[in-house]
Design goal:
This protein is an alpha+beta fold. 30% of the residues lie in helices and 19% in strands. The radius of gyration is 14 Å and the shape is globular.
């Protein structure tokens, strides 16, 4: 059965798309830790990030770097944090989270609910600053 991320990639489930190329997609997390929390996902469904081949893993990190740089231009924060948890969805992915303090990256923190208009605006703003 396809993961929820594969269903997003296939257009079966809507998302707030930030960036996409032939191998990867980045979209806003629907339950963000902070506004702008973005997921970077390979289009090829592989459960565990370290099961990706070396070239794909390296390319995924470079894609994530471009997304993170755009996020930093748009969102007021000190850094963009990176986390790979990999337990919640069986499809490799990277979390990019705007940080003002270390505790912003705790996945035990309450998740936010943003209005659709806020998410649309954030996704477009980040997307407009990406240089793929």
């Amino acid at each position: 059965m396809a993961s929820i991320f594969t269903r997003i990639i296939n257009g079966e489930i809507p998302c707030y798309r930030v960036a996409e190329d032939d191998r990867f997609i980045a979209f806003l997390d629907v339950r963000p830790l902070k506004p702008g929390h973005t997921l970077v996902v390979p289009k090829k469904e592989v459960d565990y990030i370290f099961d990706l081949d070396e070239a794909t893993l390296a390319a995924m990190m470079l894609f994530a770097q471009k997304v993170a740089k755009a996020m930093k231009e748009v969102i007021e924060c000190k850094r963009i944090g990176v986390a790979v948890i990999g337990l919640e969805v069986p499809h490799a992915h990277i979390h990019l989270v705007p940080l003002t303090r270390e505790t912003d990256l705790l996945f035990t923190n309450p998740r936010l609910s943003l209005l659709p208009e806020e998410s649309e605006m954030l996704a477009k703003s980040i997307s407009d600053h990406i240089r793929l």
